[in-house]
Amino acid sequence: MTLRLGLLGAARITPAAVIYAADAVPEVSVTAVAARDIARAAVFAQEHAIPAVSESYGELLARDDVDAVYIALPASHHLVWAEAALASGKAVLCEKPLSGNALALRSLLQKDHGPVLMEAMHYVYHPLWARVEEILRAGTLGTLMEIAMHFSVPHIPPGDIRRSFHTAGGALLDLGIYGVHMFRRLLGDPLTVASAEAAGVEEGVDERFRGVLTHAAYPGLTATVTASMSPKEPLAAWLSLSGSEGSLRVQNPVAPQLGHELTLTSKGGELRESVDPTPSYCYQLQAFADAVLRGKGPATDGADALATAVVLDALYKKAGLPPRPALER
Ligand SMILES: NC(=O)c1ccc[n+]([C@@H]2O[C@H](COP(=O)([O-])OP(=O)(O)OC[C@H]3O[C@@H](n4cnc5c(N)ncnc54)[C@H](OP(=O)(O)O)[C@@H]3O)[C@@H](O)[C@H]2O)c1
């Protein structure tokens, strides 16, 4: 059986996240695209050999040749279109964050939303992440004392959706979300905000963010997330875990296909390894197909996205900034 996927938005991320990934997942076929401007959608369809173009997002949701949609829009627009897609009986793979804030997402999840709803937290589905969790579970690091995740992307120009409050911009929501999600995966819920600072704030949008989280089950442990879209900071993504018996540093846990390395330092010495250069998006798309076609609930479902959103909202609040917007239907 083929999963026929429609695209809401002709976004920059879509070729990597879905179109090329579908080459590795033969049971997924991209059948239609809709963009705000139909001419742009038509060009996108031609470039990527997508058979059909719809005049609007709403028209795409009514198509019979679409079973599921991939949503890659501004973060403020994700939830409203996810909700509309689910109401049309389409399964949803939605870019992160699934919602600009927790409140709006909570109200969707209070109802039975029907088809599969999955947040595109692609890194989780890559074997590199499985290896991180395996090392932690093995106890090689001893008692965990400190975790940190950093993600900085310098080439985000003025006018980008990430730089406007209206489109739910901000370094924490766009980049820091990975650190918060990783901490939740590693420690479990609930995380508590100890401190948070936003810097380079313009019209409510944080260019840089630093948040420190704690967890009652890990006394003394701090989990620090730093995120930046400042043009002055180099492109970097790393995760580090320090424990009483050893440490682990993961270079590039978010895009392992661009090169990554795990460095495990313990009593046994230093071990460096890399896992698999396959893009995380291929594993993510397979997980989505498994969820829709085989009923295998995704790890990054609506409830998981809500738990992340709760922490992100709390971090913004502690830093003196409002939660990001989520459009309503
Ligand atoms: N998973 C990952 O690795 C990854 C990487 C990058 C981005 N993302 C996520 O993917 C999403 C899209 O990111 P992107 O960089 O691909 O974005 P983008 O290309 O700048 O924008 C995505 C789409 O949003 C619509 N849009 C743009 N500006 C808008 C505005 N002012 N108001 C309403 N709609 C607007 C457009 O839809 P139309 O085509 O219909 O005009 C555009 O194609 C974001 O949520 C981001 O967090 C994920």
The CATH architecture classification of the largest domain is: 2-Layer Sandwich
Structural classification = alpha/beta
As residue ranges, the low-confidence spans are none
Rg computed from alpha carbons, rounded to a whole number of angstroms: 20 Å
Compressed to H and E, one letter per element, the order equals EHEHEHEHEHEHEHEEEEEEEHH
Strand order of the largest sheet: 8-9-10-7-11-12-13-14
Report the count of strand segments: 14
CATH topology annotation of the largest domain: Dihydrodipicolinate Reductase, domain 2
The profile of the biggest β sheet is: 8 strands, mixed
How much strand?
25-35%
Instruction: Tell me the CATH superfamily of the largest domain.
Output: Dihydrodipicolinate Reductase, domain 2
The domain count comes to 2
What general outline do the C-alpha atoms trace?
globular
Ligands bound, unique: NADP nicotinamide-adenine-dinucleotide phosphate
CATH class wording of the largest domain = Alpha Beta
Span between termini: 33 Å
**What's the mean pLDDT score?**
97
Lay out the secondary structure:
Layout: E1 3-8, H1 14-24, E2 28-34, H2 38-47, E3 52-54, H3 57-61, E4 68-71, H4 75-87, E5 91-94, H5 102-109, E6 117-119, H6 127-138, E7 144-152, H7 171-187, E8 192-199, E9 208-214, E10 222-228, E11 236-243, E12 246-251, E13 261-266, E14 269-273, H8 280-294, H9 302-318
Parallel strand pairs: 1-2, 1-4, 2-3, 4-5, 5-6, 7-10
Antiparallel strand pairs: 7-11, 8-9, 9-10, 11-12, 12-13, 13-14
Helix pairs in contact: 1-8, 5-9, 7-9
